[in-house]
Amino acid sequence: MAKPATQRPRVPSVGRLGLVEPAAATDLTRLGWDTDAHVELLWSLSRAPDADVALQTMTRLADALGNDWQQLDSALLKDRSLRGRLFAVIGSSLALGDHLVANPRSWHLLEGSATVPDAAALRRLFDDCIAEFGTAPATIMPKLRTLYRDQLLTLASRDLAPTVENEPVVAFSTVGEHLSDFADAALDAALKVAVATVCKEGTPAPRLAVIAMGKCGARELNYVSDVDVIFVGEQADSVTTRVAGEMMRLASDTFFEVDAALRPEGKQGALVRTLESHVAYYQRWAKTWEFQALMKARPAVGDAELGEQYIAALMPMVWTACEREDFVPEVQAMRRRVEALVPADVRGREIKLGTGGLRDVEFAVQLLQLVHGRTDDSLHVASTVAALAALGAGGYVGRDDAANLTASYEFLRLLEHRLQLQRLKRTHMLPPADDEEALRWLARAAHMRPDGTHDSLGVLREEIKRQNHRVSRLHAKLFYQPLLESVGPSVGLAPGLTPAAAERQLAALGYEGPQSALTHLSALVNQSGRRGRVQAVLLPRLLDWLSDSPDPDSGLLAYRRISEALSEQRWYLSTLRDESAVAKRLMHVLGTSAYVPELLMRAPEVIQQYADGPAGPKLLDIEPDVVARALIASTARHADPVRAIAAARTLRRRELARVASADLLGMLEVREVCGALTSVWVAVLQSALEAVIRANTPDDGVAPAKLAVIGMGRLGGGELGYGSDADVMFVCEANAGVEESRAVKWSVSVAEQIRTLLGTPSADPPLEVDANLRPEGRQGPLVRTLASYEAYYAQWAQPWEVQALLRAHRVAGDMDLGDRFLLMIDKTRYPAGGVSAEAVQEIRRIKARVDAERLPRGADPNTHTKLGRGGLADVEWTVQLLQLRYAHTVSSLHNTSTLETLDAIGAAELLAEDEVDLLRQAWLTATRARNALVLVRGKPTDQLPGPGRQLNAVAEAAGWHNDDGGEFLDNYLRVTRRAKAVALKVFGS
Fold first, then answer.
1. 539 or 975, greater pLDDT
2. Alpha-carbon distance 471 to 406, whole Å?
3. Alpha carbon distance 427, 960 (integer Å)
4. Alpha carbon distance 949, 947 (integer Å)
5. Structural fold of domain 838-988
6. Would you tell me which of 283, 558, 707, 918 could form a disulfide with 590, CB atoms 3.0–4.6 Å apart?
7. pLDDT, mean over the chain
8. Where do you find CATH 3.30.460.10 in the chain?
9. Residue 858 CB neighbours (<10 A)
10. Residues 58, 133: contact at Cβ < 8 Å?
11. In 3D, which of 795, 627, 812 has the Cα closest to residue 730?
12. What digits encode the pLDDT tens for the residues 589-642?
C-alpha cells in the first residue's frame, strides 16, 4: 500500500487567527502572508495581545520600509524570537508601533539577542549621539528622543515577548532598573546640552548634582512616570539655576516629565540650593513626608562628588525622623491625603491609590523602614522589593508575608506597566469592568493564560480580586502580626519583634501608651483555646482599623474589656471574624467614644446590629417609636416599680447604645439623634409613671388622681442630647369623689417616687428628673392642680417663667389632662394682646446677666457650646424672644421645637432667610459638638477642648469630614460668631 504524502500546514482562516477587523484578509494579502510558508508566522501573530492592531501596524511598517520590506519578511520567517518580540510589542503598544513606523530601521534592534545596554553603555550611546550631531537643542534633542524610544522598544519587546513566544520572562526588578538607567542617561544628555546652551564659550560649567527621587531614585521606574529630581549646586547662582531649568525643560519636552516639586519648600522654593542650604532646611523646617521621600534619594547625574556629599549629609536625618514630635500625626495625615485623592466611583479601578493598591504596599513598607531603620542599617535600602526582603530577613515582617506581598506588588506593577505601554501615557487606571475587549487585551499583555476554568479575561479578573484582597489583608498584618508574635508565644506564634522594636512600631502607629497596648495584646492573644487563636487572627485587621481612629489606646483597652466580658459568648468572635463591617465599625466606635463602650458592656447584642441587612445597616432597622412602645410594654409586666424601672433601664441602655453607635458611624442626622433620645426619655417617664401608679393605687383599683407630666426645655422641644436632664412639671387632677388635698398628696408621693427611682445611681447614663422650672422653682410645690397652675400664672408669672412655658409640651401620663394644661398656659405664653414690652425688656436684661455671670469659671466664652458666643443659649433665647414678640399674631410660632420655630420665623419673614440659616447652622453645629463631647468623654460637658487628640475625637464624633480638630474648631468659631451677630441684632432691636 502506498505511503500517503506528507501534508503541509494550511493557512488558517482570519477568524481562527483572532482577527476581527474587516480589512484583515486584505492586509494579509498585501503583506504576502496568505501563503503556506507563513503559517507558523501567522500563528505567532494570533498570539499577540491585539492581533488586529499588530497586523495594521505591520502593514504600515511595510509601507514605510518600501523595498526593504522583504528583508524584514524574510527575517520574521527565520527568527522566531524576532517574531515574538515584534508582534508582542506592536500588539501591546500603539505608541511604540508608531515609533517603529516613523523609524522603520529600528526593527533590527529586535533581532538576535536584542540586548539591552547596561548603564555605562547607555551613557556612551547618548554621548556618541551628541558628539555626532552637536549640542544645538533643535538638532540634537529629536535625535536623542529617537535613541531613547529605541531603548524603550528593545526593553519592551523583551518584556512582552513571553506573551507570544516561549521567551524568558524578564524580572520586574530588572525592568525597573533598565528604565532607571534609561532615565539617568537621558538626564545626563539633557544636562550636557543645557550646559552647552547656557554656558557660552569661556564660561565655566557650574558644579551641579542631580539627585533622583521617587521610583527613579529607587531604580524601580515605570515605563511612563514623572522623574522626580532635586538639584544641589556648589553655588545657587543664576547660571546654575538656568542650567537646571534648561535641563528640566529639554528633558520634559523630549523624554519624560521632570518634576522638582520634592525640593525644599516645593514649587515655591528655590530650584537650586547649596548643600549647606539643604542641610539647614532639613534640620529646621522639613516635614515627615520630606524625610520619607529622601529614603529613595540617589545621585543620578552631574557632579558625583557633590551628590555623594548630599546623601552623606541628609541620610542620618532620615533615619531619626521617627523621633520627631509630630511624626505620628503627620504620618496619619499623609494616609488621609492619599485616600482622599481617589474619587469613590473609580476607587475599584485604581491600582495605585485604590484600596489594596500599590500605595498601600509602598506606604506600609516605608513606614516600617522609618520606624526600625534608626537601629537597623539593613533597612537602609531604596526599592520597595528590596525593603520587603530586608524587613522579612530582620523579623519585622513574616518571611511568607514579605514574599506574598512582593508577589502582589510585582503583579500590580506589571499591570501598571502594560497599561502605560499601550499609549506611553501615565496611567494607573484599569479599564471599566464592562469593557471586556480592553480587559482581554490587558490579560494577554500581562501573560494571562486560560486555566481550564476561566479564559484569560476571567483569569485576570480573579487575579486582580485575589491580589487586592491579599494586599489589603497583608497591609494590616504587615504592621501587627510581628507585634502579636512578640507577645503570643503561648498560642504557638514564632518569635516576633523585640519589646523595644514593638513599642517603637506601636508608637509610630498612633499609640501613645505602647507598653500598655502590648499588655492588652498579650492578654487578648494568650487566652486559652479557641479564643486566643481567633484573636490572633482577628487582631491585625482590628488594630489597623483602630489606628485610624482618634484614640487607638482607649479603643484597644475598650476592646479588651468587651472581649473579656463576652468571653463565653461564642457569637461575639465569630461575628467579628465573619462580618468585616461589624468589626470595622466596632473599632471606629471604640477608638472614638468613651460613652458607647460602657453601654456595649451591658448591651452587647447591639454589636450584632452593626452588620448590614437587606435594607441597609441593622442599626437603622428599628424605629424609635417601636422601641418606645416595647419599653412601655415590657415594664407593664412588673408589679414592683423597682423591677419595672430596671426593665426600662435595660431597654433604654440598648437604645442609647444603638443610637449613639449609629450617630458615631454617620448614619443619623442630628435631628434624628435628638428625636430618638427624646423618644426613649418619654418612654422611660411613661413607664416609671405607670409602674409607680400601679404600686400606689388602692385596692379598689381607682387612683385618687389623674397625673400628667409636662416636658420643659429640650424635652418639651423634642431636642434632647446625650447629656440632657429631663426638665418636667407635674400636674394633677382629683378623680371623682376624691378630696383635692388627698389627690395632691398622693400625686406628690408618686412624683417623688418617680424622681427617686429614676435618680438611683447606676452604671448607665443618669436619669435625672429636674422639676426646677415649676412655679416658684425649688421652693414651690412639686405637683399642682390645673386650677392652681392657672391661678399662679394669671397673677404671679415672671417673664422667665413665661419664656420657659414656650417649650412646655405634655409627654407622659394622662394625655387629656396634659392637653388641657397646654390650652391653659397658651393664654400666658401667647396672650391675645402680645407679651408686654416690659416683659420683653426683662428678658433682655436677664439674658445680659446670663451672658455676664452664668459662664462657668475658667470656661472659654468662644467654645462653650451652651452659654458661649453664638452657642445654644444665644440661638434659643433669640428664637424665644421672637416668639414672645410675635406669637400672638403668627400662629406658626406656637411650636416648642427651636428648629421648627426657626423655619416659621423665616417663613413669616421676621428675619432674613440668611440670618435664619445662620442661627440654624449654629444650633446644629453646637448641638453636634455638645453631643460629640458626651460621646467622646463619656459624661456631660459643654466646653470644647483645646487642640489635641480629644478635639480630633470630638470632630470625628460630630460628623466632621475628617478628624482634623483644628479645622473643625475653626468652622465652629466661624459659624457661632456669625450667629452671635444675629442674636445681638435681635436683642438690640
1. 975
2. 10
3. 32
4. 7
5. Four Helix Bundle (Hemerythrin (Met), subunit A) (1.20.120)
6. 558
7. 91
8. 24-322, 622-829
9. 6
10. no
11. 812
12. 999 999 999 999 999 999 999 999 888 899 998 899 999 999 999 999 999 999
Q: What confidence tens digit (pLDDT) does each residue in 30-64 have? A: 999 988 889 999 999 999 999 999 999 999 999 99
Residues, the chain, total?
989
Q: How large is the angle between the packed helices 580-590 and 641-664, nearest 10 degrees? A: 100
Structure-block grid coordinates of residue 486: 512578640
Report CA-CA distances (Å) from 758 to 96, 143, 533, 730, 808: 80, 88, 43, 15, 21
Q: Smallest Cα–Cα separation from 757: which of 689, 655, 677?
A: 689
The CATH H-level superfamily of 622-829 is Beta Polymerase, domain 2 (3.30.460.10)
Could you give the C-alpha distances from 960 to 281, 588, 956, 965, in angstroms and in order? 34, 14, 6, 9
Question: Does residue 317 surpass a pLDDT of 90?
Answer: yes
Distance CA 896, CA 718 (A): 8
Residue 175 to residues 221, 430, 564, 618, Cα–Cα distance (Å): 8, 21, 52, 50
Place of cell 551641579: 208
Asked if residue 782 lies in contact with residue 730, where contact means CB atoms within 8 angstroms, the answer is yes
Contacts of 939 (CB under 8 A, 6+ apart): 723
* Architecture of domain 24-322 in this structure: 2-Layer Sandwich (3.30)
User: C-alpha 619: how far from its chain's center?
Assistant: 22
Strands (E), 760-813: 769-770, 783-785, 809-813
Cα dihedral 901, 903, 906, 911 in deg (nearest 10): 50
For the entire predicted model, the pTM comes to 0.77
**Cβ–Cβ under 8 Å, residues 863 and 972:** yes
Q: Looking at 70-84, 323-337, 445-459, which range is the least confident one? A: 323-337
- State the CB neighbour count (10 A cutoff) for residue 662: 23
Scanning 32-136, the segments in alpha helix (DSSP H) are: 39-46, 51-65, 69-78, 80-90, 94-102, 119-133
The three three-digit cell numbers of residue 630, written as one number = 416595647
The distance from CA 744 to its chain's CA centroid, rounded to whole angstroms, is: 59
SS (H, E, C) 200-262: CCCCCCCCEEEEECHHHHCCCCCCCCCEEEEEEECCCCHHHHHHHHHHHHHHHHHCCCEECCC
Q: Dihedral sign for Cα 266, 268, 269, 272, please.
A: positive
Residue 876 backbone phi and psi in degrees, to 5: -70, -40
Q: Can you tell me the distance from the alpha carbon of 58 to that of 97, in angstroms, rounded to the nearest whole number? A: 9
Q: At what angle do helices 137-160 and 94-102 cross, to 10 degrees?
A: 130
What is the distance between the alpha carbons of residues 523 and 686, in angstroms, rounded to a whole number? 44
Residues of each domain in the chain carrying CATH 1.20.120.330 = 323-487, 838-988
Give tens-digit pLDDT for 863-873.
999 999 999 99
* CA 749 to mean position of chain CA atoms: 55
Residue 205 CB coordination number (10 Å) = 17
Output the nine-digit C-alpha cell for 925: 453645629
Can you read off the three cell numbers belonging to residue 942? 459643654
Which of 595, 953, 506, 4 is closest to 498 using CA atoms? 506
Query: Which architecture, in CATH terms, is 323-487?
Result: Up-down Bundle (1.20)
